[in-house]
Structure formats: structure tokens, C-alpha cells
């Protein structure tokens, strides 16, 4: 049996099908355009009581460990600070203070410091923590004259906020930081108010000082006028304090050669529920919070899930977070073996970099305040080691409006004692010797390069070590990636 269909009938049928498809597509597109997008508050969390396989718990737990590591880290640092009854120095070295206060040092931080990795000896530090929903803080900014300075403030996620410093054109005055839920009245005499994204904050003034006896003496009067304290203690007038006379508190027992251990994987998931309550999600993090909370709720009811999370934490500490300590795994690679975190202090949803920075060199400034560069290898890719001799030659000095320095850290990212008591060189040093063509060569090695070169020598440990380039108030060339530090060239 055959069926004949005329050409006109076929064309008519084809046009009808096309018209139907077009109409259907248009209707679908219209539906797609008009379908309401649910608000985050309307997105349902995982159903309570759902079956959770071992792999599911491990997957959520591993992500939670990466996400939460910096927040637990900061939580424990804050707890250590808050034990001090008044502003003072822990072990005579570390500036500590009760909640809402800072303590200022009066010189470079001592090389024995173990509270935070990668300290510098370019600035005089101050530090403290506050809870600014409960009691905002008053910040006194004296007249620093031509001296470089910056006050960094960190929220609970270790993101930097605010904007107090020479690069911001900040005028001397009395400033204030308030929390997201504070409802009080701003008192008279406040120059400007900064709003913290979280209740809990860290506070870190950094004041540049030349490495000379003259500047150590000259800086003392201005240091005494740097004050941060609770709003409840504000009198309407600027206060002063002789920071050279603060008390010393006994230091806790050392846990080894490296930085104090701030995160314990054995208790991590016991503490994470408190962090999730204290720190609200960023826009878009609601689903992540819901996943983490559902697993934590299940762990609270099921010992097997709780034990699985503990094992996940132990493994993640070693195999996920552990490798992030190496600078080669931190940020993005640039020229000559260096890496850098272009979003330092402004991490957003970049949990990998946030945790890498927290693990390797916590509490960094924002890029426009300071751009940091990290180096573990020489110009040929070999691991930096004190058995070798290296030179770092700047054909052009780092382009900065503030200052620059090159620092050597041991394998723990801390200072290694040496005969010169010298750990860095840069703007602060007034006796550097320049080459005939105007370039500057620094020598990085364990033994002296000779009396004629010692002014340009940064002593290195005998074992593995790292180099750390700081550019404070960097110029556009640095921020845009047009300038990067020179290679560490192996010369033996």
C-alpha cells in the first residue's frame, strides 16, 4: 500500500510543525523568564534524619574543614589573648590584651615569637581582639608625620576591612569600629565610624621604623598615643599609655619548634557549631551552611558519624591543610618561582587561599596596603637551602610608596637566630651598598659572604628556608603584575 502526499500538503504540515515548535519554545522561554527565583530563606535544608553514608559524611566534612580552619584558628588565638588581665606582653615578647584592647610593642618583635608565622622586623606591631557588637572600640590615630603606618582590622573570617593608614590619607583623630548588630549612639568627638561584618575582630596597627637607634628613640612618643579600647571606657578625650612599662605574663609551654598549634583536628567538629552560630553566612553560603549543619546535627546523635568526622579532620589536617603551609601551594605562581595571593585579606569565597594564608602567614594586609610575594625555590626550581649561597639582585628596587623588605624564614616560617640578629633587609637599612650600575644585590646564605658584603647579607638557616618579599603601599606596577621580585640565584 502506498501513500501519496502532495508537496503543498507537506509544506503546510512543515510550517505547522515549525510554528508549533516556535510557540512552544517561546512559551518555555517565557516560563523560564517569569519563574520566580526562590530567596535563600526559602531554600530547604537537607531533610532531617536522612541516611548519611560514610562517603557523604567525609565529603561534607572535608569541605567543612577547609572552610572552617581559619575561623577555628582565629578563635583559639583570641582565647589566648583574652586570658590576659590587662594589656601586656606574653613571655615579655607577644603583645596581648583583654577583649577590646590592644598592646603596642616599642621595638621590632623579638625573633623568639611563635604566635604567628612570618612576623616582620620592619614595623612596630600592636595587636588585640574585640567583640564589637557588645562593646565597639575607640581607635586613636596620632599625627605620624611622614612616617608610614596602617591599622589593619580583621573580621572573623580573617578578611580585612576599614581603611586607616597613610595610603588612605587618614587624618589624626578618634575613630570607632562597631559590629553589624550594634544599636547604640555614636558619641561626640568621633571622626569616622567603620562597620565590621562580624562581631569578633582582630586589630593590628603597624608602624614603620628605620633600623637605627635614632628612629627607635624618635618613634616612642607617637607609639604612646596609639590606643584602642572599648567604647565603654571612652571619656571624650584622647588617652595615652607608656607601652614600655606594661607588665609581662608567663608564656605557655612550647609545643615544638614551629608556630603555636591553633587548630586541633580532634576537637574541630566539636567547635564548628559555635562558629556557624557566631559568623553568619555570606550571600550564597546558605547552602554550604545547611549541609555542614545537617552533618553536625547527625553527628550529635550518632557516635559513628561523630567518629567518622574526627577521622576526616585528622586526615584533612595532614593531607589537605598541611600542604598549604608551603608557599609553593599558596596563591598564584608568578615569575622567577615566586607565588603571591592577589586577594590577600579579601578572600571572599576563595576558601583554599584563605586557609593557605591562615596556615602559612595569617593576618595579611589587603593588596593596596601590602602586596606579599613568597619563594621556596631558586631560579632553577631547586629548594632553597642553607647549604647553598644565593644572590637576589634588584635591577630596579620594588616600586612602592611606602617601604619594601626581603625577609628570610626558616622551615617553620619563623626567624632563625643568627650572629647578626638580622632577619631582613630593605628600606629600613641605611647602609646598603649598591652596584656601579645602580642595582642592588642581597646575599642570602648561612656563612658570611665576606666583610665587604656583610651590609647586604641576610643570614640563612642551615636547612630549608623561604624568602618573603613585602611591598607596603605598592605602586600600580606591583598591583598589576608588571613588577615581580627577582629570582634567588644559586651561585655555588
Q: What is the element layout, followed by pairings?
A:
Elements: H1 7-34, H2 54-81, E1 88-90, E2 94-96, E3 103-104, E4 123-131, E5 137-141, E6 149-154, E7 160-165, E8 173-178, E9 192-195, E10 200-208, H3 213-223, E11 227-230, E12 248-249, H4 268-278, H5 286-301, H6 303-321, E13 332-333, E14 339-340, H7 351-361, E15 370-375, E16 390-394, E17 400-410, E18 424-426, E19 440-445, E20 457-459, E21 465-474, H8 476-479, E22 489-490
Parallel strand pairs: 1-12, 8-9, 19-20
Antiparallel strand pairs: 1-2, 3-4, 4-10, 5-8, 5-11, 6-7, 6-10, 13-14, 15-21, 16-19, 16-22, 17-18, 17-21
Helix pairs in contact: 2-4, 2-6, 2-7, 5-6
Keywords: Signal
Protein name: DUF1254 domain-containing protein
Organism: Paraburkholderia saeva
Structure overview:
- This protein is an alpha+beta fold.
- Among the domains are: 87-246, Immunoglobulin-like, CATH 2.60.40.1610; 327-490, Jelly Rolls, CATH 2.60.120.600.
- The protein is built from 8 helices and 22 strands.
- It has helices at residues 7-34, 54-81, 213-223, 268-278, 286-301, 303-321, 351-361, 476-479; strands at 88-90, 94-96, 103-104, 123-131, 137-141, 149-154, 160-165, 173-178, 192-195, 200-208, 227-230, 248-249, 332-333, 339-340, 370-375, 390-394, 400-410, 424-426, 440-445, 457-459, 465-474, 489-490.
- A 5-stranded antiparallel sheet has the order 3-4-10-6-7, with no helix packed on it. The protein has a 4-stranded mixed sheet with strand order 9-8-5-11, with no helix packed on it. The chain has a 4-stranded antiparallel sheet with strand order 15-21-17-18.
- A hairpin with a 5-residue loop joins β6 (149-154) and β7 (160-165).
- α2 (54-81) crosses α4, α2 (54-81) packs across α6 (303-321) and α5 crosses α6.
- It is globular.
- The N and C termini lie far apart (94 Å).
- Residues 370-475 form the DUF1214 domain.
- Residues 102-230 form the DUF1254 domain.
- Pfam families: DUF1214, DUF1254.
Amino acid at each position: 500500500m502506498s501513500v501519496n502526499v502532495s508537496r503543498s500538503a507537506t509544506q503546510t504540515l512543515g510550517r505547522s510543525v515549525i510554528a508549533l515548535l516556535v510557540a512552544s519554545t517561546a512559551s518555555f522561554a517565557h516560563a523560564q523568564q517569569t519563574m520566580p527565583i526562590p530567596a535563600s530563606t526559602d531554600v530547604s535544608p537537607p531533610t532531617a534524619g536522612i541516611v548519611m553514608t560514610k562517603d557523604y559524611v567525609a565529603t561534607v566534612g572535608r569541605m567543612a574543614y577547609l572552610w572552617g580552619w581559619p575561623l577555628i584558628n582565629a578563635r583559639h588565638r583570641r582565647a589566648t589573648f583574652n586570658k590576659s588581665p590587662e594589656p601586656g606582653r606574653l613571655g615579655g615578647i607577644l603583645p596581648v590584651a583583654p577583649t577590646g584592647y590592644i598592646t603596642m610593642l616599642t621595638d621590632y618583635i623579638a625573633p623568639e615569637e611563635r604566635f604567628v608565622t612570618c612576623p616582620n622586623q620592619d614595623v612596630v606591631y600592636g595587636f588585640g581582639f574585640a567583640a564589637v557588637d557588645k562593646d565597639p572600640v575607640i581607635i586613636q590615630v596620632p599625627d605620624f608625620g611622614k612616617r608610614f603606618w596602617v591599622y589593619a582590622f580583621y573580621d572573623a573570617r580573617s578578611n580585612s576591612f576599614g581603611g586607616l593608614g597613610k595610603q588612605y590619607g587618614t587624618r589624626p583623630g578618634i575613630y570607632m569600629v562597631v559590629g553589624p548588630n550594634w544599636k547604640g549612639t555614636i558619641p561626640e568627638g568621633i571622626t569616622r565610624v567603620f562597620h565590621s561584618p562580624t562581631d569578633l575582630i582582630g586589630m593590628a596597627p603597624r608602624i614603620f621604623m628605620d633600623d637605627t637607634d635614632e628612629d627607635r628613640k624618635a618613634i616612642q612618643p607617637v607609639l604612646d598615643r596609639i590606643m584602642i579600647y572599648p567604647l565603654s571606657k571612652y571619656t571624650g578625650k584622647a588617652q595615652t599609655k607608656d607601652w614600655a612599662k606594661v607588665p609581662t605574663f608567663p608564656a605557655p609551654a612550647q609545643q615544638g619548634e614551629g608556630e603555636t598549634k591553633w587548630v586541633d583536628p580532634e576537637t574541630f567538629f566539636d567547635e564548628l557549631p559555635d562558629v556557624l552560630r557566631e559568623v553568619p553566612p555570606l550571600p550564597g553560603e546558605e547552602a554550604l551552611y545547611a549541609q555542614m549543619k545537617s552533618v553536625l546535627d547527625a553527628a550529635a546523635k550518632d557516635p559513628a558519624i561523630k567518629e567518622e568526622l574526627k577521622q576526616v579532620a585528622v586526615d584533612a589536617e595532614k593531607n589537605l591543610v598541611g600542604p598549604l603551609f608551603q608557599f609553593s601551594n599558596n596563591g598564584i605562581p608568578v615569575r622567577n618561582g615566586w607565588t603571591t595571593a592577589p586577594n590577600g585579606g579579601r578572600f571572599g569565597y576563595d576558601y583554599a587561599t584563605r586557609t593557605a594564608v591562615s596556615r602559612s602567614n595569617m593576618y595579611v594586609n589587603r593588596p593596596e596596603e601590602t602586596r606579599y610575594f613568597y619563594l621556596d625555590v631558586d631560579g632553577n626550581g631547586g629548594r632553597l637551602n642553607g647549604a647553598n649561597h644565593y644572590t637576589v639582585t634588584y635591577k630596579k628596587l620594588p616600586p612602592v610608596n611606602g617601604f619594601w623588605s626581603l625577609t628570610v624564614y626558616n622551615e617553620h616560617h619563623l626567624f632563625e637566630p643568627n650572629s647578626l640578629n638580622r632577619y631582613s633587609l630593605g628600606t629600613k637599612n641605611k647602609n646598603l651598598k649598591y652596584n656601579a650600575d645602580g642595582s642592588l644585590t642581597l646575599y642570602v646564605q648561612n656563612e658570611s659572604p665576606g666583610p665587604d658584603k656583610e651590609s647586604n647579607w641576610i643570614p640563612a638557616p642551615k636547612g630549608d628556608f623561604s624568602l618573603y618579599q613585602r611591598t607596603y603601599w605598592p605602586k600600580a606596577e606591583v598591583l598589576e603584575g608588571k613588577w615581580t621580585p627577582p629570582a634567588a640565584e644559586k651561585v655555588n
